[in-house]
Amino acid sequence: MKVINFFESDRQEHWLAEIGKSDWNAGKFLHDLLRCGTFFEAVGEGSKVLLLTDGDRLVSFCTYAEMDDIQPTDLSPWMGFVYTFPAYRGHRYLGLLFAEIERLAKEEHVSAVYISTNHVGLYEKYGCVYRTKLQDKDGLWSNVYVKEIHV
């Protein structure tokens, strides 16, 4: 297993096609943002798409971004678009992406990363703590968790 940055890969078309295989609406939205070239406009210029790969197969993906679906807010950065393909679920592979997020946050001297989700019991396994409930861009309520980063 290896974590790579989509934008630093010389195989972006391959990884874009892999992201497009996601059966999740937000995954398809991420695919469209990348395909249309509007990703940075939507989530911020310094944002990253992190891919957990197993050879040529995409295991899991997420973003490390300035903005997410909770806007406007002072909270930043966000871990978003978190998805693991069904064949790989239940093995805590998400922890490998979290480790990379933590590494990036420490490098940037960031003390907290936020996650907007309706999942309960998933992110707590990785040290995230419920912070509040906020409305997303569509007006729907979402749980906001925080992962403290020890810099």
Topology of helices and strands:
Layout (H helix, E strand, L loop, with lengths): L1 E4 L6 H9 L4 H12 L2 H5 L4 E7 L2 E9 L12 E7 L9 H14 L4 E6 L11 E7 L5 E8 L3
Antiparallel strand pairs: 1-2, 2-3, 3-4, 5-7, 6-7
Mean pLDDT: 96
The assigned structural class equals alpha+beta
Q: What is the first-to-last residue Cα distance?
A: 26 Å
Order of helices and strands: EHHHEEEHEEE
As laid out across the biggest beta sheet, the strand order is 1-2-3-4
CATH superfamily: Gcn5-related N-acetyltransferase (GNAT)
Overall geometry comes to globular
Which percent band covers the strand fraction? 25-35%
Quaternary structure annotation: single chain
Number of DSSP strands? 7
Q: What would you say the CATH architecture is? A: 3-Layer(aba) Sandwich
Report the uncertain regions.
Answer: none
Percent helix, as a range, is 25-40%
Put simply, the count of helices is 4
